[in-house]
Amino acid sequence: MDGNRRWARRHGLPTLEGHRRGYYKFKKVGEWCLDRGIEILTVYAFSTENWNRSKKEVNYLLRLLSLALNTEIDDLHRKNIRVSVIGRVHELPKRLQQHIAAAMKLTNHNTRGTLQLAINYGGRVEIVDAMKKIYRTAKSAAQITEKSISEALYTAHQPDPDMIIRTSGEQRTSGFLAWEGVYSELYFLKKNWPDFTEKDLDEALAEFARRQRRFGK
Question: What is the CATH number of the domain that holds 99?
Answer without folding.
Answer: 3.40.1180.10
